[in-house]
Each structure stands twice: as structure tokens, then as C-alpha cells.
Amino acid sequence: xxxxxxxxxxxxxxxxxxxxxxxxxxxxxxxxxxxxxxxxxxxxxxxxxxxxxxxxxxxxxxxxxxxxxxxxxxxxxxxxxxxxxxxxxxxxxxxxxxxxxxxxxxxxxxxxxxxxxxxxxxxxxxxxxxxxxxxxxxxxxxxxxxxxxxxxxxxxxxxx
Length: 160
Prior knowledge:
Layout: E1 6-7, H1 8-11, H2 19-25, E2 29-36, E3 41-48, H3 54-68, E4 72-79, H4 114-127
Parallel strand pairs: 3-4
Antiparallel strand pairs: 1-2, 2-3
């Protein structure tokens, strides 16, 4: 991955959890990920404000695997700053309007690993609208004047 940390919902943009769970996940950052296309797995390193509950972690892993059609998703969380056990939790800041996201820098293709390149190609294909396959024609089809699609038959008198 590039050297910057990606917000959790930027990396997994198709995942839409319940609002209560989404509030917990907004503080998570993805610091690294390994995508195994052959085994259809993802291993991701997370940076979290507080170490997440293992049950929540397993729930998110299961839901992500289901959303993306993967056999497994594994997270390796790390705490942003390890607080001493006897220290009181930090006071929560009042909700503020988040700043506008900075324009993303896309790394050059040479710096991306092959797995990452394949993952991005797959995600780009998933975002494109499906096209209906059509039959290429070199000339327009002509239909008989009666409006029928069957070939016109000549009416001959019956032969004696």
C-alpha cells in the first residue's frame, strides 16, 4: 500500500454497517493490507483509537467477507497510543464538522504491488456499468413493408 493510512470506509467503501457500528469504525485506519486473490482473502493492519472488542472485530471480518465475496478477512489491530491501565479515559471531544478531504494522490503504477494493482482493477470494473452485448451490424436491417419480421413470400397461384 502507499505510505499513507487509509480511513476504514475509504478502503472498504461497499461495506455499510449499522449506524452504531459505523460510529466505532470511523476512527479506524488501514495501515497495510495483503490481498490474496487465489485464496480470496484479505489481511489488514488497523490503527484504532482504542483496541476494539474481539467480538466486534470478528463481526466486521465476517460481514466484510460476505460483502466482498471473500473466504476470509483477518484484521491485526493496533492501538494509536497505549494508555496506562490506571489512567482515566480521555474526555470525548464535541462533534465537529469534519474537514473536507484532501485530494488523493494516486501512486504511480510502478510502486504498486501486483496484488494491489489487480485489486484496484477489480474495484474499477465493479464500478463500471454493465453493457448489454449487442450484435454488431454493418448495415441496417430491412423489414418487409407489412411490418412482419418474416421474409416476404410471393403469392403464386397454385400449380395445376
